[in-house]
Amino acid sequence: MITMKDIARELGINESTVSRALNNHPHVHPSTRERVAEAARRLNYRPNTLARSLATNRSYVVGLVISNIANLFFAEVTQGIEQVADANGYSVILCDTARDAAKEQRYLDLLASRQVDGIIFMSGRLPADTVAAIRNVKCPVVTISRDGASYGIPTVRINNRAEAARAVSYLINLGHARIGFISGQLDDAESGLPRLAGYKSALEDAGIPFDPCIVQEGDFTMESGMRACTRLLDAAPRPTAIFAANDEMAIGAMKALAQHGISVPKDMAVVGFDNTALARVVTPPLTTVAQPLRALGSTATEMLIRLMTGQGLRDTEVVLDCQLVVRSSCGGTGI
Amino acid sequence: MITMKDIARELGINESTVSRALNNHPHVHPSTRERVAEAARRLNYRPNTLARSLATNRSYVVGLVISNIANLFFAEVTQGIEQVADANGYSVILCDTARDAAKEQRYLDLLASRQVDGIIFMSGRLPADTVAAIRNVKCPVVTISRDGASYGIPTVRINNRAEAARAVSYLINLGHARIGFISGQLDDAESGLPRLAGYKSALEDAGIPFDPCIVQEGDFTMESGMRACTRLLDAAPRPTAIFAANDEMAIGAMKALAQHGISVPKDMAVVGFDNTALARVVTPPLTTVAQPLRALGSTATEMLIRLMTGQGLRDTEVVLDCQLVVRSSCGGTGI
DNA sequence: CTGTTAGCGCGTTCAA
DNA sequence: TTGAACGCGCTAACAG
Fold this sequence. Notes:
Two copies of one chain form a homodimer.
Chain A: H1 4-11, H2 15-22, H3 30-43, H4 49-56, E1 61-66, H5 72-87, E2 91-96, H6 101-113, E3 118-122, H7 128-136, E4 141-144, E5 155-158, H8 160-173, E6 179-183, H9 193-205, E7 215-217, H10 222-233, E8 241-244, H11 247-259, E9 269-274, H12 278-281, E10 287-290, H13 293-308, E11 317-320, E12 323-325
Parallel strand pairs in A: 1-2, 1-3, 3-4, 4-5, 5-11, 6-7, 6-8, 8-9, 9-10
Antiparallel strand pairs in A: 10-12
Helix pairs in contact in A: 1-2, 1-3, 5-13, 8-9, 10-11
Chain A binds a DNA duplex through helix 2 and helix 4.
């Protein structure tokens, strides 16, 4: 490895002059600067970021703690994060916790040891000891899509309640008055309860009475969507539309409908939530609430950068808007 | 930040003794070791990995250069990589190149500057200057799924030719004699040409003449699959089965078939390649050649670890087996 | 504008 | 078994 010392010796000047020249400090003679640059090029010099970080106490690395990179949802958010980080000179250390709480803690510790300048945390719920661990790392932390705001942790998320209501209102405007709902786990404070609440409020706004018989709980898997849909079909009167709390369950519902010979969207409209790639591949393409995945990542990263660079935050909680993507499962025209 | 010096002062002993105690060196008095451990705990000491790396010249970080983390294919491989890396004490720096050759070079340089111990490279083809850049970083590099072996770069990949042949043979055994092929770009030395070659060889083995009329080139997108399929339907005699070089195009083909009122698998069998999550969501679920995605990642990481730890490599090229996953698009039973 | 000195936190000699 | 001293590669403070 070739160091600043080498190029200093080569040029018969001092190491710190080399440092200044390479870092574009003011007050370096143009000719010196040029000679240094030339020598660096010639000797194939590569700065040692580790040493620099040790000296400056800034690593220009951010940690990303995530529960499952193989999930399209997280993968897209990650892309938004990496892109903004890189554009600002930061590298990203990827930590996949596989929803393991012990791993979460270990990763937070590891990242702190590695002197990261900041951390983005997007791994499941926030139990008390995880909150404690987050407070324990000295660097700024931003959480995505979780209930961090209630702990005073900077957060970016979507308004699950309002977005769910928007989707249901859309169905109502289409003329549907009997709308089944396939919920996620109701103990999920993120995508479970709030989306159910949104469903209810949209009905209420339209003066449609809430009927618990056409609300079925699933667990966000395709299989649970199929089962929930089958139960919905037994309700009397039968719903004319189904809203599911995520795409997977909506797709499961469409499969169940197909098995029962019910045609989408002619006999049943279906709407999902998330807008993963699955939604446009399934037949017919699924109408769905599109989360701004990349934006979740980039916004969180921008917040983190503000914190790391000592600029304040406007709001410790940012709520992003979604978009209803209408496809042929809901009366759209399809491809 | 609290350092070894702090705990040394606290205990009235020397800093290097603390270092030895913390690193479980032999020849440290048990009582000293215990006092140090206790003080470290009490003061909430956290080792500074940067400083350690600078001193030992090993960072325990690997770089991952990838072309698109939002693609399920790469995301799953990445999960395999992260998992093995973490299990061996390595962290992963994620670099998403977005297929930008300039970014590839920049990232390789960046990683070298960060003193990573090794790099896994999985970003598109290997043009000459990228090969040069790879040779230029001093740490070991392993490539995945690319033609690195011909440059002497350690590689793990699948046998695209043989796996494609396997899928086509399966169709032949099912009784199909007229099998259309939707290829990828034929200038793609990875998934383009080899898969076409596999298609041809399977036909030849079965004594079926090759007919260029029922080979249509696509570009791995769903839309191109639709167009290619439409062209295939004009061929006379019309094929009874279609093999596509990836899932996306196979799904596009299924969409085109649906538009033409052709039922899958009754009137047409369809087989894809890759086994992304899309394959089991589409209707009917797609038969496809399943690449061992996680294994690609974990195998590459294991190779890299051998290299980083100075153990040799058995083979500089490892070829993994795929598996044909039969689903209802091809005579399976469906869900 | 440049050289000198000191130090970031840790590991590793070499003596004692 | 422990202490003292030095070095990893780089930045920063202070002179000059």
